[in-house]
Amino acid sequence: xxxxxxxxxxxxxxxxxxxxxxxxxxxxxxxxxxxxxxxxxxxxxxxxxxxxxxxxxxxxxxxxxxxxxxxxxxxxxxxxxxxxxxxxxxxxxxxxxxxxxxxxxxxxxxxxxxxxxxxxxxxxxxxxxxxxxxxxxxxxxxxxxxxxxxxxxxxxxxxxxxxxxxxxxxxxxxxxxxxxxxxxxxxxxxxxxxxxxxxxxxxxxxxxxxxxxxxxxxxxxxxxxxxxxxxxxxxxxxxxxxxxxxxxxxxxxxxxxxxxxxxxxxxxxxxxxxxxxxxxxxxxxxxxxxxxxxxxxxxxxxxxxxxxxxxxxxxxxxxxxxxxxxxxxxxxxxxxxxxx
Amino acid sequence: xxxxxxxxxxxxxxxxxxxxxxxxxxxxxxxxxxxxxxxxxxxxxxxxxxxxxxxxxxxxxxxxxxxxxxxxxxxxxxxxxxxxxxxxxxxxxxxxxxxxxxxxxxxxxxxxxxxxxxxxxxxxxxxxxxxxxxxxxxxxxxxxxxxxxxxxxxxxxxxxxxxxxxxxxxxxxxxxxxxxxxxxxxxxxxxxxxxxxxxxxxxxxxxxxxxxxxxxxxxxxxxxxxxxxxxxxxxxxxxxxxxxxxxxxxxxxxxxxxxxxxxxxxxxxxxxxxxxxxxxxxxxxxxxxxxxxxxxxxxxxxxxxxxxxxxxxxxxxxxxxxxxxxxxxxxxxxxxxxxxxxxxxxxxxxxxxxxxxxxxxxxxxxxxxxxxxxxxxxxxxxxxxxxxxxxxxxxxxxxxxxxxxxxxxxxxxxxxxxxxxxxxxxxxxxxxxxxxxxxxxxxxxxxxxxxxxxxxxxxxxxxxxxxxxxxxxxxxxxxxxxxxxxxxxxxxxxxxxxxxxx
Lengths: 340, 502
What we know:
Chain A is an all-alpha fold. Chain A has one domain: ABC transporter involved in vitamin B12 uptake, BtuC (Orthogonal Bundle), CATH 1.10.3470. In chain A, about 75% of the residues lie in helices and about 0% in strands. Chain A starts with a helix and ends with a helix. Among the domains of chain B are: about 90-145 and about 155-160, no CATH class; about 260-500, P-loop containing nucleotide triphosphate hydrolases (Rossmann fold, 3-Layer(aba) Sandwich), CATH 3.40.50. Helix content of chain B is about 35%, strand content about 25%. The mean pLDDT of chain B is about 85. The chains are: A mainly alpha, B alpha/beta. The interface of A and B includes residues 208, 271, 276 and 337 of A. Chain A: This is Autoinducer 2 import system permease protein LsrD.
């Protein structure tokens, strides 16, 4: 119940922010800008959904930026060097990303590494792997060849909803990028899994009280590995959207995106102390972040200041999460004291 | 004779040098309620953990209905119908009561979707059957502890277990709830469930159990029908003849309630909101005051306030007649309070460092000459401590990690004695310490007392309290309910008071 009201509060804050920039920032309230916001932050939202799984387990996945680059480069190589058809490239790239995520999980479970350390190490390792498999380095000339496969470029299309519905004479609505719908599909699928299946409940249990989960016979290791694999899966989906947009992949693709994804997830109310949060929050968090960044750009505030602000927003979200945690702790001790 | 529903054969478990359980045989028949009793550290919890699969034994085997089972795997034991109500909460606090009852086993329909309607109906039927009322949609973390305990009980009952283990199930329950739980137990017994009931409350054992197993120092000491046992005999078995003799001997050591009469520590109306309230007592120079009570009666929390790790909301503390308000353990140490924590591994010792380093750790500033440490003086101090405390082996360079539990504890006590505190507080000083080392630690504390030290000991081990204390204070649920002269009170009386019966 409280989780739902927290999501509603976040949604209200998002709408208020949107309204502020709508009137305050020049050219914010244009169809083109809203298209930018949707296409530019749908993949951040997908990454944030993925990031929610490790965070629900009190972990973190720092390697998603590198996994984005890895999946992107796999797609690049398969299309431009091996000339695979797009319908085969898409699942292959996502599979590569999912396996990279699962490997994170295996390292954490089998070697009992701290998630922070394990994914910091794979962040470097995966990025190195990207360079070593980079078609841009292996085959001279490819770096300037765009990806033209219709399956992949098709991901970067826009749907004229208003036009289809015959409303375009009355009102100018933004065209909705396909990536936005991909994001909605990912959200719907994973939220169903998290909220309504036993695996989802098990995930919350492991995140909330790992010992209780173990004693209830839940396979804690398997849940953990799957959570990191899902984070990788989401990074793979995001990578394809990015590659479609850029019509190429670079070795530096996705650099620093773990920051935005973690920020969006935490702003979205996924608690760093584990076991609390839904996937709606991270999606709203991602678009809130996008609204603020684009709004500030339109207000003419420098890129550097924006980076400071992103850090500041993350700090504020983490601090707020901490406050909520301490409040829960206090309530717990208050309950213990009731018998006195 | 039938096959036992659950049976442990030759079970043993060691943790490093410590033997928690040795060669224990244990069996429960269908429809039998077996009490499992023994002092802290007797091995009851280890035995239970082996039976639930939470811990794998280092030796022995477990049979359920005559079949040997895979050990150390909770899901295997759950599948075979072994459920447990744990002493400490094993719930996911952010999840609903309903989800917690069916943790990891929610009924599912198509596509793995959880069947909420069935889950709710099952939960309601379960609550109706056992006379428990809970808000199924409330997050468990928001419930009071009593209600959480009820969730824990329902969770175990929901398994339709053939074997139900209960580790101190009544620790948080009111008298009326205990009666209801006992009614439930009798119902389950009539259905042929095998029940293991751990409790420190002998009253409960004698009320609800058919048979009992008594443990001491990691071994099964005796098995008997409840009807054939008497309380004094049970206590004697629990404690062991040697300790009974020691404690008889200790009873002859003159007690010194009130010590020298000089008040070292005066506590008045000390309250920490929702934790403990109105705690008042005096601690004199030259006496040992033991504070006893159940786990969760807030003794440790009280010590944390005395030691400056937490703050009181009201009330006063005076050391040597001067009011103090310590904001941190550092201030408390400077103010003459020493605190030997309960968990020596986590809070007290640097296991990788040598005995000498541990012994002088808190007092290094005394060994400074200019900016350098005077290693000769440190070695001399350490050698003296080791001799005084009879630490084995007497080698200051040895890493503390390599010592036995009892000797580690002596190092920890020595570290604080070197500080020469006005008041020395010890929290459960002999947990995980063997009987011989216990007696030595008692002797050390008595010697300090005779030198005029004021010593405050928190202990759940009643034998320890009866042996060591000059005066005994009893804490129940955040209140100090009684203070006795140790000579003038019986163990039975203290047991009653601990249980809140007084």
